[in-house]
Amino acid sequence: xxxxxxxxxxxxxxxxxxxxxxxxxxxxxxxxxxxxxxxxxxxxxxxxxxxxxxxxxxxxxxxxxxxxxxxxxxxxxxxxxxxxxxxxxxxxxxxxxxxxxxxxxxxxxxxxxxxxxxxxxxxxxxxxxxxxxxxxxxxxxxxxxxxxxxxxxxxxxxxxxxxxxxxxxxxxxxxxxxxxxxxxxxxxxxxxxxxxxxxxxxxxxxxxxxxxxxxxxxxxxxxxxxxxxxxxxxxxxxxxxxxxxxxxxxxxxxxxxxxxxxxxxxxxxxxxxxxxxxxxxxxxxxxxxxxxxxxxxxxxxxxxxxxxxxxxxxxxxxxxxxxxxxxxxxxxxxxxxxxxxxxxxxxxxxxxxxxxxxxxxxxxxxxxxxxxxxxxxxxxxxxxxxxxxxxxxxxxxxxxxxxxxxxxxxxxxxxxxxxxxxxxxxxxxxxxxxxxxxxxxxxxxxxxxxxxxxxxxxxxxxxxxxxxxxxxxxxxxxxxxxxxxxxxxxxxxxxxxxxxxxxxxxx
Length: 507
Hints:
CATH superfamily of the largest domain: Trypsin-like serine proteases
Structural class: alpha+beta
CATH topology of the largest domain: Thrombin, subunit H
Number of helices: 10
Oligomer: single chain
Strand content: 25-35%
Shape: elongated
């Protein structure tokens, strides 16, 4: 072999060895040779945690309930008016749902007054196969004509009964077939946190299903008679048009009637408990209206401060804030400051217990009240009358010139009741006390709801006959003691009477 050929073989051997060495080195440190790509990993489905795999589906529930939910169209035609208004000129529907739609054709000069057409509506649900429907009273109140949309048909509707106090109404439609309807559940058994489903027609979007939980119970929001407000609060979306629709549990039973929402918030809706409907349904169906027993007292719940101020051993009971003249309570001798602890042997834990029981009794029936008065327990028999539908507004409060007087820590300005002040503020001649002419923002009585124009007639049970007796009674309070002021109010914004309880300064 020639020397040149030997050198070529040696060179080839060196090149081959270098290539092999490089491949071994690259494989050892897991490097990818230039020009080659790494192998793609196999695709895998997202893993759902086992804790989430048991969440319920509401599809079967919706399939069962939706066929019994209806939409309601209400048309009101009036001449030269804007329609009925709620308390203090505010339509409760508009306060919670925004303005209703109103249409007014152009009027002709010198002609008849303009006709105003108001289109509104809401939701409802069937409670019987023969066409009985529940909705809110405000959905159909004052309507000239009503029709119900169910499935692919419209039915004219007849109003069978209404109850403005609870904002409920009963309608009737006639169909040529048995209709699907919903069972009524038990709202008393609800717990905060329970699942609920709302079904209705918000913003004309029929058969809308929303889901949430019971956020709270026993809410009072001031759109109806507060004595009967006991709303379920829910975060299931309730919007304009949901009014009157069902709130159901996971078994498809109705536990509430969607009624209102907070217009300025999200997911704060309210429903009338179904047990409220069950109490009045027989009267709505048979008489078209609801008659309720009536005592004639303004009552409030007891809290720790009230219990201390009255020297009570328990916060159970209903505190009588005021007794209305010429009522069964007045005839039976009940007084403000009494605490009702039993009715017909049934314990009264809070005002709701007394209101529910008495309102279910027939006018003319008699109830026995166990009352704590000045630390002693007495029995009072009361023959009930029929609850009036509304309260008359009292005279309006007018602003009076301020006079420097008062006790610094109270933050009040007040005056004796003169004949002129009585006339201006509508205070009866037989009422003695001091008139509040101004109240500072820092006054402890502000949080108790006291305001300018109120009259303080008692301090811790001591009658107030003028400035001297008022100031003497306030100054007699021990440092740190609870002081109770009995307040009377005589104006359109809320006539009535109540106790305002504050704590005296420690020194």
